[in-house]
Amino acid sequence: MAVVETPERHLLVVDDDDRIRSLLKEYLSRNGFRVTAAPGGAAARKLMENLDFDLAVFDVMMPGEDGFSLTAWLRERKGAAGRTPVLMLTARGLAEDRIEGLRRGADDYLPKPFEPEELLLRIEAILRRAQARPAAGNGAISLGRCQFDLERGELSCDGAPIRLTEAEVALLKRLARSPHEPVDRLELARETVDPSGRAVDVQVTRLRRKIESDPKAPRYLQTVRGVGYLLAPD
Predict the structure, then answer these.
(1) Average pLDDT in the 20-44 region?
(2) Under CATH, which number does the domain 140-231 receive?
(3) What percent of the chain has pLDDT over 70?
(4) Beta strands 183-184 and 154-157: pairing type?
């Protein structure tokens, strides 16, 4: 396989398996990334407190702190650090595990065993979404007490910034391109790790908790039965 030419971006790989960690570091380094590796949650936390990363790859099943808990901790951090994209690697490939990873704030989920090229393509896709910016002039949309800046991909409510995962930003941007019009659930699912659409449902639930006064009776992020979802800004 040809080496992919990319600007140097900094990845964090966290896996307790020495062999897998070494192989991932070597493979991703050969494909143009700067890679820092950690054997577990404690070491990863220290690294993330002192260094900036463009993306983190977390194993789920690790002694001590697992990848779910590590992702939840990362998402609680303030500023850009808390928005660092996360790709989970794990032997736990059940749909329930994927959904739990997304619920904790992961952006993608790749079950083991996996093809290294698929890992690379998923990383590139996440980074493209993270770096994507809509055309100038899109401005911001009003969602009651919240404002979503399409250009920056940033949400604020009552003037305070609200952390969004890259997957949540991508979902809001897609819905905002067609305000007050339903978007097919499976169309939204094409950008997620679960083609059935269940991952989209998880992201919608998370977003409603952030933007709706009553998430159980959503005003702005509405369900269109038999179709999908629509965004109804003010």
Answers:
(1) 94
(2) 1.10.10.10
(3) 89
(4) unpaired
Query: Three-class SS of residue 94?
Result: coil
Alpha-carbon span 61 to 28, nearest angstrom: 21
Please, which residues bridge with residue 148 across strands? 141, 155
Compute the mean pLDDT over every residue in the chain, rounded to the nearest whole number: 85
Give the pair of three-digit tokens for residue 88. Answer: 């989970």
Long-range contacts of 50-54 (CB under 8 A, 24+ apart): 51/10, 51/12, 52/10, 52/80, 52/81, 53/10, 53/11, 53/12, 53/84, 54/9, 54/10, 54/11, 54/84, 54/85, 54/127, 54/130
Q: pLDDT tens-digit profile of 212-225? A: 999 999 999 999 98
Q: Predicted confidence band at 93 (pLDDT cuts at 50, 70, 90)?
A: low
Say what the pTM is.
Answer: 0.62
What fold characterizes domain 10-131? Rossmann fold (3.40.50)
The CA distance from 74 to 106, in Å, is 10
What pLDDT sits at residue 195?
Answer: 61
Residue spans per domain, the chain: 10-131, 140-231
